[in-house]
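Next comes one such specimen:
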Amino acid sequence: KARDDSSFSMKNSADLDFSINVQKNTTTSKDKIRQIFDNISLNVISFLEKHRGVTDVKFFERPPITDNQIMDWEKKNYPCKLPKDYKSFLFISDGFVLKWHMKYNREVLPLGNMSLSPLQSLKAIKFGDKSDSNKIAF
């Protein structure tokens, strides 16, 4: 079932344009999201689409976030800092969900789900004793 959340848009990965030369913050940011995710995940989307029995590979994207949202999160969770590569991804998409299904006995059944949570859902976690101020975001 598709979500009613308007900030989520369901995309069938077969419908995405995979062009490499995409400008940041354009209407084709979904292209960058898939390209980046495919690169960091060892081409999992491409693998799933080509895998026998796997069907209905869908990519749910979120709108990008702003510098101010990152600064607000880091201020709220000080001294925790987000990694640069994660910040770069957030400027393209504030998380994502990838789902895929399988065909079995003429039925399409849910098989897998991968996701990266939106920034607002990340919580800083304290480690160590009360005098230790180390924090980590994940």
